[in-house]
Write a structure and sequence with these properties.
217 residues, elongated
């Protein structure tokens, strides 16, 4: 168990933080949702809230932006360079990530040994998975936002929105862009700040004594 925790400490820490924060979001989201609908006299319990548009919309609009940001970052760093940033490749020298896979290496993953289409998909599996997660999150965000809009409309006795009409609704796109812009800003910040600032011991930083214009980790 100690070895497992040591070998997986980074992922375990972030997973625990995720569980804590999603639980807090759910707790406070339930209170906020019931406060919004209290005029209709229909408070919901935890089970009902987890199926509500309010929970689905607020959860997946954030996941959507995270997966979009990560997918774009993975793809754009293949072709684009930021001189001096630890988040960029150095195009003036060969990088390990650009070499062709060698099926004869020790402990090579099985898709590399398989070759063909399996290898092609594996070579791009990170981008494919992140884009798939973005699309799924985007769809669930849209579904949750539409459901929440219609739940509130029912309480107010207003006409319900259709899928066709809501896809161009300002509320849905406001929810999306307010999250997208923050993700792009955070990536921009780490790219630029890693040129001039350091964090000893972090693989996201260059060595403390590295010149500002040295590109890569």
């Amino acid at each position: 168990m100690k070895t497992f925790i040591k070998n997986n400490g980074l992922s375990l820490s972030f997973f625990v933080l995720f569980v804590i924060t999603i639980a807090c979001q759910t707790y406070f989201g339930l209170q906020e949702h019931n406060r919004e609908i209290i005029e209709g006299g229909v408070a919901v319990n935890l089970s009902g809230y987890l199926q509500s548009g309010h929970f689905l919309q607020s959860t997946f609009e954030n996941w959507e932006s995270e997966f979009l940001q990560m997918a774009l970052f993975v793809v754009l760093t293949i072709f684009l360079q930021q001189k001096g940033s630890s988040e960029s490749k150095d195009f003036d020298k060969d990088e390990e990530v650009d070499r062709e896979p060698d099926s004869n290496r020790k402990d090579t993953p099985w898709p590399v040994k398989k070759g063909g289409l399996i290898l092609f998909l594996y070579k791009h599996s990170l981008t494919i998975t992140l884009l798939t997660l973005f699309i799924l999150s985007f769809a669930l965000h849209f579904y949750g936002s539409l459901k929440d809009e219609n739940e509130l409309a029912l309480l107010k006795g207003q006409p319900l929105a259709t899928t066709g009409s809501y896809i161009s609704d300002s509320r849905f796109w406001f929810e999306s862009f307010q999250n997208w812009q923050s993700e792009f800003l955070s990536v921009f910040a780490i790219i630029i700040l890693s040129i001039f600032l350091r964090q000893k011991g972090s693989p996201q930083s260059k060595p403390v004594d590295a010149p500002h214009m040295e590109t890569g980790e």
